[in-house]
Write a structure and sequence with these properties.
By secondary structure, the protein is an alpha+beta fold. The protein has three domains: about 110 residues, Nuclear Transport Factor 2, Chain: A; about 120 residues, Zincin-like; about 120 residues, no CATH class. The strands form two sheets. Strands 1, 2, 3, 4 and 5 form a five-stranded antiparallel β-sheet that branches. Helix 1 runs antiparallel to helix 2, helix 9 packs across helix 10 and helix 12 crosses helix 15. It is elongated, with a radius of gyration of 37 Å. The N and C termini lie far apart (about 130 Å).
Length: about 450
């Protein structure tokens, strides 16, 4: 190329270079968009020579929520959905009010005197018992006996004092009236005693209670027995300390709950107690809970601590669903061992029973409901001596392990004994029988 060719008057071919530069920029921008470099979108927009504003179409206005074309009093499936939602909202309000200790709001759910009285009793009792969890949800709705009425079972889950527990459930029948302001509670009944182990009527559903609460226990009674609460709570706390030592299944009750019953209440609480020789019982109320009822008319002040130790040990060992068939001697003997310890002289309650025709077998079933007190005590004495001997010979830890295997996991004594006692059950059982006969 000559110097003339480089004359400054000659136009420089910049068009091709501009095109190349633009391609380079676009490639860089595309790369930036791919790898996510900041500012890439802005750069791409800045290099567009023909950019125009983009106008988006307006967003459509949301359609209003459709309403269900039903009227108060309808018995159609559509109306049932409206009532169902209304009941659910009312129950949410009910549960929140109880936990907030708002009695006025709690009672607003009901309109009839009967339903209001039932709610007032439950509010009074559950707040006194320091309900820490309270959930209520509705079962299936069924048509009521009158137009505009609906029947529904209320599933009530409740914990006391501590929120970190497995809730106890009761199922209460209820009736709701369909109104223009939503469904209103017009009837509420206590839970019914049924075939399931946990289907029983709780005392807090039936009577106004006074409550005493300690570190491990809760004792409740009606007004007629209110004066016994301090002594009962002291006995319960001492009993809990012993029962905790005999707890099985790797857990202790979150709170031992005891109800002091008068003669009339003894016949109705938790479905009633029929055995004429019984003065107390522990009853399962959930998979990990049991409650105690004591017949106060039959328990003296001096006898109360021992009965507490016995029944609370049942609560710590025979709760929820357990294997009781043919294991009566172990269940009751275990509670007797906690009640009396290894220093009790059981001769007076067992000798007559053993000498009057005992068959030489560990009793697998409880005494008949109409058995005499003496006959029942004799069977309890045999059960006590059997468990007494197991603890004396093998130690408490081995005994607790054996009870856990048999009552909680369903192993037979024959399969559990080698694991707990390192001895065959035939040999262990023969020793128990000899010990009882010689005692």
């Amino acid at each position: 190329m000559s110097s003339a060719d480089l004359d400054s008057s000659t136009p420089y071919p910049v068009t091709a270079r501009r095109s190349t530069a633009r391609r380079l920029v676009l490639l860089l921008v595309a790369f930036a968009l791919i790898v996510g470099l900041p500012g890439a979108a802005a750069a791409a927009y800045a290099f567009r020579s023909d950019r125009h504003s983009i106008v988006l179409p307006p967003m459509p206005t949301p359609s209003p929520k459709p309403t269900i074309p039903t009227s108060v009093g309808d018995t159609t499936a559509l109306r049932m959905l409206v009532v169902r939602d209304g009941v659910a909202a009312a129950l949410t309000k009910l549960a929140g009010a109880l936990l907030a200790h708002d009695q006025e709001t709690y009672l607003q759910v009901a309109t009839s005197p009967g339903a209001t009285a039932m709610l007032r009793r439950q509010y009074r009792n559950l707040t006194a018992m320091r309900a820490s969890v309270y959930r209520v949800n509705a079962g299936a709705l069924l048509g009521g006996d009158k137009p505009g009425q609906w029947k529904v079972a209320l599933n009530i889950d409740v914990c006391f004092v501590r929120p970190d527990c497995v809730a106890v459930r009761v199922v209460e029948p209820s009736v709701w009236q369909d109104t223009a302001d939503g469904p209103r509670l017009i009837a509420l009944s206590p839970s019914k005693t049924g075939s399931h182990a946990y289907e029983n009527t709780h005392p807090w559903e039936l009577a106004d209670l006074y409550v005493a609460i300690g570190p491990r226990t809760m004792v409740a009674a009606t007004a007629s027995l209110r004066g016994r609460l301090p002594a009962a709570l002291a006995a319960a706390e001492q009993g809990a300390a012993k029962a905790d030592q005999y707890a099985v299944g790797g857990r202790m009750p979150d709170r031992y709950r005891v109800y002091l019953a008068s003669k009339g209440e003894w016949k109705t609480w938790f479905g009633g107690q029929r055995a004429k020789w019984a003065i107390g019982y522990s009853i399962s109320t959930g998979p990990f809970s049991a409650e105690v009822v004591l017949n106060s008319a039959e328990i003296s002040a001096s006898y109360l601590p021992g009965v507490m130790r016995h029944e609370l040990t049942h609560t710590a060992s025979a709760y929820g669903t357990y294997y009781w068939s043919n294991n009566w001697w172990l269940i009751e003997g275990y509670a007797e061992a906690a009640e009396h310890g290894l220093t009790w002289d059981a001769t007076s309650v067992t000798r007559r029973f053993v000498d009057s025709g005992w068959n030489g077998k560990l009793p697998g079933i409880s005494p008949a409901d109409n058995a005499s007190v003496a006959a029942a005590n004799g069977r309890y004495g045999v059960a006590f001596l059997a468990v007494y001997r197991l603890e004396q010979r093998f130690g408490r830890a081995a005994l607790v392990d054996f009870v856990n295997r048999v009552l909680r996991t369903g192993q037979t004594p024959a399969s559990a004994a080698p694991l707990s006692f390192h001895a065959g059950w035939a040999t262990v059982q023969a020793d128990l029988i000899r010990f009882i006969k010689r005692y």
